[in-house]
Write a structure and sequence with these properties.
Elements: H1 3-40, H2 46-72, H3 89-98, H4 100-134, H5 136-139, E1 145-147, E2 150-152, H6 155-195
Antiparallel strand pairs: 1-2
Length: about 200
């Protein structure tokens, strides 16, 4: 494995972890803040709060665009912001709440949580598990290791697990970058849907 391919694999692993982290953040942030803002609309404090929360979607989708470009080389056209000059805060809040692209952006950002969970599972299977499997012949002598319900307590089982790790490394070289490209295409689809 060359130094460049090792760096690319590490970069792909980071991107999958960032996908999970950002998806978890978006889901929790929007779920909590929109619920709180809707609850506060009873005393009219929630209306500008909800508008402010919806306006954050533009910042987060721009972050997604930059992250996708850096990690996957998929270029996405930026979404231009609308300027609201000369209006009072209630008109600006009304416009932000009634703007359907804000709601679509929030929907796509929250949906990224599920993409992130799949990315985390794939990152563990493709990047962490092979390393653990390959060093199993060293570890089983010192630790109690159980995989898929059976104990790795002999050299034969440890060698079989090590071979499974080598197979996972081979699979990683074949599909690891493709998985990252698929996640990157999600951002591309998100921008197309928001621009409608």
């Amino acid at each position: 494995m060359t130094k460049e391919s090792a760096r690319k694999r590490l970069q792909d692993f980071y991107f999958l972890l960032f996908t999970f982290g950002s998806g978890l953040f978006y889901f929790c942030f929007y779920l909590a803040s929109i619920t709180f803002a809707l609850g506060m609309t009873v005393i009219f404090v929630g209306v500008p709060l909800l508008a402010s929360v919806l306006r954050t979607s533009h910042t987060f989708i721009q972050y997604e665009r930059i992250q996708t470009k850096v990690y996957t080389d998929i270029s996405v056209e930026p979404i231009l912001t609308r300027t609201n000059s000369g209006r009072d805060k209630w008109m600006k809040a009304r416009e932000a709440i009634l703007n359907s692209s804000n709601w679509r952006a929030v929907f796509w950002l929250m949906q990224k949580f599920f993409i992130g969970v799949i990315s985390l599972i794939c990152a563990v299977i493709l990047y962490i598990a092979p390393i653990v499997f390959i060093v199993t012949p060293i570890l089983f002598q010192h630790l109690d290791i159980y995989l898929w319900g059976f104990a790795v307590d002999s050299w034969e089982k440890a060698i079989c697990v090590m071979l499974a790790g080598c197979i996972l490394v081979w699979i990683n070289t074949r599909i690891g970058n493709s998985l990252v490209q698929i996640v990157g295409m999600y951002t591309h689809s998100m921008f197309k849907a928001i621009k409608r």
